[in-house]
Amino acid sequence: MAIATVNPTTGKTEMLIEPHSAAEVDERIGQAHAAAAELGRTTFEQRRAWMHAAADFLEGHAEGLGELITVEMGKPIAQSVAEVRKSVKAMRFYADHSETFLADVPLDDPARVGASAAWSVYQPLGVVLAVMPWNYPIWQVVRFAAPALMAGNAGLLKHASNVPQAAMLFDDLFERGGFPKGSFRTLLIGGGEVARVIADDRVAAVTLTGSESAGRSVAATAGDHLKKAVLELGGSDPFVVLPSADIAEAAKTAVAARVNNNGQACIAGKRFIVHTDVYEEFATEFVRRMSELVVGDPLRPETEVGPMATEQGRQDVVDLVEDARAKGATILTGGTLHDGRGWFYAPTVIADLPNDARLVQEEAFGPVASLYRASDVGDALRIANQTTFGLGSAVWTNDPSEQERFTRELDAGAVFINGMTVSYQELPFGGIKRSGFGRELAEVGQREFCNLKTVWKA
Known about the structure:
The protein contains 15 helices and 18 strands. The chain has helices at 22-39, 44-60, 62-73, 77-101, 139-150, 164-169, 173-177, 194-199, 212-224, 247-259, 279-291, 311-326, 377-384, 400-409, 442-447; strands spanning 3-6, 13-17, 105-106, 117-124, 127-131, 154-158, 184-186, 203-209, 228-232, 237-241, 269-275, 330-333, 348-351, 368-374, 394-396, 416-417, 436-437, 450-457. Keywords: NADP, Oxidoreductase.
């Protein structure tokens, strides 16, 4: 079956691409395997020049690629172009810092281990498979590919099936910069074929960003074959607002956190937990701002919220909202399908959620915010930690003791104080609990796919 670009704004099929056959997949794995051997013999200086050249190419096509992203998955055009430029920045970051991140680490006192010298070295693993989602179709791939290639690994990409044009961009992006042929190869395959690729002896490791169910499947296969895996799965991030916060600024940022990328981001604020003393003030401003958002064609510069990426994704959000409504929750704004063609859903705020509502535990991957009233600081922490997820989090308070407590006690891979959770190439990214394991970005993310080798010399 052909892989399709279906425009979520219109529901129209824009392009059909034939998937790769089993023979083509085998050939591409072989190309990556051969390239990995070659990359392992290259220097940081060579790879740095190639990565900068690839970044220059990507930057030169930012506007066109931004439009492609918007057509394929529906985010507002300004956000799409910004995604490409963020990706360029990450490529340059790893080009310039990888040699330092992966430098040999000497033991200060080798005599303690009976050696004249002892040190650790970071070496590439070989071919790493990346299974990537559609919500950030350029950034998600680059944040894996740039550190992996700069470490001397080769990459294979199984991208989400609804963004095939973005996927094919990566089939030659890095070769355009000078990397050896096959250094990064796209596999146009279905999800059911991923296990076979992981099992291939030429593939050393796998990383996945996606759903909890996909993560379980990939982790199980990787475990069966004793291969390294890094997983970034779902999140239902808390956004806590306490009385000492700037309430107006918190409400403004909360809206941006919830509807960025049309509400389809793992680390977006989803559950807004507000101290009872400032609940009414925050809720009034938050609901007003959510209700005034401009929903429409994402190619228009004035649009703030575009369509959801897939029809099924919208239906999943509808099901969560209707479950909450049926169980007595209050819809403060939204909760309706947007008029016209495409997979639009009105920005929505839901309050008074009963404990048995699915939204209390499940992730709303769309422009839907859950609003909670906390009786005190301890209650806010309880609500924040009550889900099975632990990806990002945000707390708004100007009280140093509260900042310290939430930093220590929030169950999350990241805590942002008086701001919204964002991924930066300079900071480690990942979660705990059912949000996955391992880290991406920064130096620790690059080291995930390296062999940390100990060297001892008499």
